[in-house]
Amino acid sequence: MLVSCVAYQDGRKLADIENKDISDYVRRPECLVWVALYNPEPAELSEMQQEFGLHELAVEDARHGHQRPKIEEYGDSLFAVLHTVEAINGEINIGEVDVFVGPNYLLSVRSHTEHGFANVRARCEREPHLLRQGSGFVFYALMDAIVDRYFPVLDAVEDELELVEERIFSGKSARSNIESLYELKQKLMTLKHAAGPLLDASGKLHGGRVPQVCAGTQEYFRDVYDHLIRINQSIDSLRDMVTTAISVNLSLITLQENETTRRIAAYAALVAVPTMIAGVYGMNFKNMPELSWEFGYPLALSIMAVLDCVLFYRLRKAGWL
């Protein structure tokens, strides 16, 4: 559906326009047309293709969706695929924003994401001296808003990791800890898939041969690039921490199993001593030593108790019990 369709001139809002009038305003070099779509139908994309004169390959990518983050150049226009990341009820939701940027227009196509970009439009309209720079600045503002939304999700993942680390050393369920750590690793991989390719793509917007639509706004895209570097470094650091936490958790499980095995072996030794003595006297031979002695039975029990006490003391001192 159509979210907004606005024409600007000299950095200020000119009018809300109809779809059929887009091409008329685009033909006016002094105007900037900014259109936002949300989960559009194929017919809507086809209409926008005709009004803006969009490249058919870019429109095909936007129509099918599920593209890898990228920025491609088609003549004097750009086509960008950006992934939005939202934390909803503890789960990470990945959306997609396809952006068509021309000399005096910008078309954004938002899919599978709940939060829109009304705040971006409001920000640009509050800064007419920047909006006067054209579609390049609008593209930067939109891209900056998407990248900035990665930080809260990354902070939430870091907080979850700290909680799991506390549970690891508090002796809680090792199985649930492993499951939580692998879930965090999956979230970080999702973030990496969104931010990693965008880091390489955004580097083309501020250095070397900059696309014409981004001329004059290189310093803004450099700021986005710096944010992406921080995000990717944080993701890599958290992934290493998760891997370390998994190794520590598995090591603690092994130590716990070894301690349990030692305890079982110690208790088995305590039972084995009286069992051995009782087994000797249970063979029922006629000529057994001290068989007719009055104190033979108490003596055998006493020997069992003394040997078990000595064995228990030694095992306790060795840390097995």
CATH superfamily of the domain at 1-131: CorA soluble domain-like
Distance between the termini: 70 Å
- Mean of the pLDDT scores? 84
Oligomer: single chain
SSE topology string: EEHEHHEEEEHHHHHHH
The total of helices stands at 10
- Name the shape in a single word: rod-shaped
Q: What's the count of strands?
A: 7
Radius of gyration: 35 Å
Largest sheet geometry: 7 strands, mixed
Helix vs. strand class: alpha+beta
Widest sheet: strand ordering: 2-1-3-7-6-5-4
- Percent range for helical residues? 55-70%
Task: Please state the second-level CATH architecture of the domain at 1-131.
Answer: 2-Layer Sandwich
Low-confidence region ranges? none
Give the C-level CATH assignment of the domain at 1-131: Alpha Beta
Q: Fill in the CATH topology of the domain at 1-131.
A: Beta Polymerase, domain 2
Strand content: 15-25%
Task: Describe it.
- The protein is an alpha+beta fold.
- Among the domains are: 1-131, Beta Polymerase, domain 2, CATH 3.30.460.20; 258-317, Magnesium transport protein CorA, transmembrane region (Methane Monooxygenase Hydroxylase, Chain G, domain 1), CATH 1.20.58.340.
- The chain contains ten helices and seven strands.
- A hairpin with a 2-residue loop joins strand 1 (2-9) and strand 2 (12-16).
